[in-house]
Amino acid sequence: MKVRALLECTIDTANPAPELAATISAVLAALPNAESRLSVLQTLDDEIGRALADYLAPETEAAA
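Given the sequence above, the corresponding structure tokens read:
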């Protein structure tokens, strides 16, 4: 049997940054230790970096 906690959230896409930040904070607060929190933050950092690279790639290619 697995024990798990779920967090449900609704994000207003018209102004998502504050709600995304609050969601991340809530997830981090629910994690049991600093190592888990760090792992989540590092994974998010990687995902955000990839998303930024993908988003900016067409601009970079157009300038070349």
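Helices lie at 16-30, 34-63. Try to locate this feature in the token string yourself.
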